[in-house]
Amino acid sequence: MDLNNFWQQNKRFVVSVASGGIVFVIGIMLIDGLYGADLAKLTREVGQNESRLRNTPMYTRAERDKAQAQNEALTKSIADLEARVRFLPRPFFRLDPNGAPAANQYFAVVSQTREDLLRSAGRANLRLPEDLGLPALSPTRDAEIAKHLEALDLVERVVRLALENGVQRIDKIEIRLDPKLNSREGVGAIERTRVAFTVSGDPAPLTALLVASQEARDVKLEGRTQAVLPLPIEKAEISPARSKQDEASLEVVFLLVTLHERSEENSGS
Question: pTM, whole model, 2 decimals?
């Protein structure tokens, strides 16, 4: 190759490359001169910290044991709180996955419960809505059937308390399932079914009904006894009756709470 010809044809390119190389070297030298000491210092500090982390425990055994004990206590407290809040329906009001179709089970439980409650209410002169708060059109989805049966369990308990405490009239019962039950995003970690009662009559039995609903007690059903916890109340309001001065009206909303496990992804959001 003729270097003279190459130079004549490419001297601009060669000069540009050489200039760029010189500028790069000068830049490296300037950076090293200005920041080299700081970079070396930071590098040493990183190495020292890594060595300290590998060889020196950040917490003592006593601190670790204390943290573990606190975690166990917190876990127990959460479990106790969940047990107090979660509503556990009695076996009679649960769908049997190995039994008849859910709709058939629903009709059987509703029919027997309605018959028993209306008979008892008639004997005690307690006025009681015949629908017990259940929808006029029976639910068809298994999830809705299960939730209505759980709500019926709560209705049965409250009506029994009303009978025991001499309540005169239960004017209205309304069961409201969680509005997110059939939504695309789901109900989340806490599912709430609300059961609203409007009760009227002598104020003393109304107050006794509220007090009794907040007491742990044993209930009997189909020959079996089951301990039940107080029923969570979302709202309770007693007001004087409009028509009679010696009577009152109670509006109370009980919460039927179901707790669901949350995924790692949802719990971290």
Answer: 0.67
